[in-house]
Amino acid sequence: MQATADSTKMDCVWSNWKSQAIDLLYWRDIKQTGIVFGSCLLLLFSLTQFSVVSVVAYLALAALSATISFRIYKSVLQAVQKTDEGHPFKSYLELEITLSQEQIQKYTDCLQFYVNNTLKELRRLFLVQDLVDSLKFAVLMWLLTYVGALFNGLTLLLMAVVSMFTLPVVYVKHQAQIDQYLGLVRNHINAVVAKIQAKIPGAKRHAE
């Protein structure tokens, strides 16, 4: 019974986090999204200039400086005003953050599902179960070699964060035009694939 209640509570928390993430990506609270977006950019820019160890250490020191300073400030304030409000972070210290065995098993099963599907898909592509799909994958990897030559991993991650916070808003504002162009691109790709299937013997049969 307790495990079921914990699972329901965790699902509610996950649903709440998902809703907050959507609100952030669509800039429904400009101030909150700006803070998160700016923090992500600052972190990634710091990683491009300093090592991961240095960035993590400085972030930890900054967080500790803030919490220790606030703790001392509240203690002095309580001593001067002769109040007994207790620890300023008491509500956070009492917050339950442990995962139950059922929750761990649930997330492990999800991870196992995605890993198995990924391995099966890679096996299918590399062992050419479908010739057309393997050719598409080869073209994608070939394009990624050019992307890797132009950008490093952190730059791509920085571009991904910027895109994540800008593309949803742009899509909502210009959805009709974007859908129209995406449809044209999709039709063009399908036409190219159809030509490849017609030229390569047995490709259509493998695809079916």
From TrEMBL:
It is a multi-pass membrane protein. GO terms for biological process: brain development; endoplasmic reticulum tubular network formation; neuron differentiation. Residues 21-208 form the Reticulon domain. GO terms for cellular component: endoplasmic reticulum membrane; neuron projection; postsynaptic density. The chain crosses the membrane at residues 35-64, 150-172. It comes from the Eukaryota. InterPro entries: Reticulon, RTN1-4. Pfam families: Reticulon (PF02453). The keyword Kinase does not apply. PROSITE patterns: RETICULON. It is found in: Endoplasmic reticulum membrane. The keyword NAD does not apply. Inhibits amyloid precursor protein processing, probably by blocking BACE1 activity. This is Reticulon. It comes from Erinaceus europaeus. The lineage of its organism: Eukaryota, Metazoa, Chordata, Craniata, Vertebrata.
